[in-house]
Amino acid sequence: MSAHRDKVDVKSLPHEFKEPVQLAIIGGTGLYDLPNLHPVARLTVSTPWGFPSGPITIARTEDGFPVAFLPRHGLHHDLLPTDVPSRANIAALKSLGVKAIIAFSAVGSLQPEIRPRDFVLPTQIIDRTKGIRPSTFFEKGFVAHAMFGEPFDLKLNKLISEAVPSSGFLEQFDSKYVPQLHTKHTTNGGEDLTVVCMEGPAFSTRAESKLYRTWGGSVINMSVLPEAKLAREAEIAYQMICMSTDYDSWNESEEPVTVETVVGNLKANSANACKLAATLVDAVAHAFETGVGIGDDLSGSMKFAVSTSPDGVKKELLEKMHFLFPGYWPLH
Ligand SMILES: CSC[C@H]1O[C@H](OP(=O)(O)O)[C@H](O)[C@@H]1O
Ligand SMILES: Nc1ncnc2[nH]cnc12
Fold this sequence. Notes:
CATH superfamily: Nucleoside phosphorylase domain
CATH topology: Rossmann fold
Number of strands: 11
Distance between the termini: 49 Å
Number of helices: 7
Low-confidence stretches: none
Structural class: alpha/beta
Bound molecules: ligand LNRAV4D5, adenine
Mean pLDDT: 93
Shape: globular
CATH architecture: 3-Layer(aba) Sandwich
Radius of gyration: 19 Å
């Protein structure tokens, strides 16, 4: 995606950043840096779950608000969806002080009205991953169950929906069509918008794609899980913003999806994606600065989600938990 600011040599940036960073953007396919913002640090963060997908860049908005940026598949997109180190990604962001994550993702559309290059703010998830991705920070010896009935953060969802004007915001990409932003309350009559998360890396068959439509799927990707679950466990408000790039494989009047189609639509729509990213960063930064309290209702929730009595838990396990939840369960 093109950068609108003067080019900064990111390798020469400081490797430390002392202020807490409350907002993070996870970039998906086609979004490998934060256009319009001024990078001020580049961090390599080690966590008990290993290293994140890549270095985390801290950039500032024009008002000086710091934002962390992490490319999900690495700087050169060399991580398969299955291999994204989501535990390290979320733990690293948590350790910087992050309270809210906006995660970008390229998705296939499962519904005719969600056209390629439209944006979608999902509210629900169907898990079609294969159980081969580590999907929790908890483990044998320390058991907890996070609430996930509402998998995205409703406050963040509302804030994002309201930050984008219903018309005149997204630019027309050809003479016929202006992309739309689909959200539960503004365009979907209060109905959920559901992202199906598949394992990949091959795309779905036509039969699978049609099945997901009967399940009420709106869009499909390979990325929202376990990212959203881990963010919830880490008490971070999380919302994904999806950019539709294709009609997956259900639509028999179209060729089944290929990477060429995905990348073609991402490139053609990059100005809209950049505009959206910049607007959302400003809106969430403003919410933090004015004390709206994004993520506050999650704070402390995991204390009450634990089933194991902390008294008998091994020290190494408590130390790992301490990385995410300092002070929740005293080290003995
Ligand atoms: C390149 S097409 C499939 C790939 O695109 C999406 O990635 P992301 O969510 O990181 O934008 C999808 O989830 C797949 O990983
Ligand atoms: N059709 C599709 N299926 C899964 N992930 C995708 N990412 C973009 N298009 C996709």
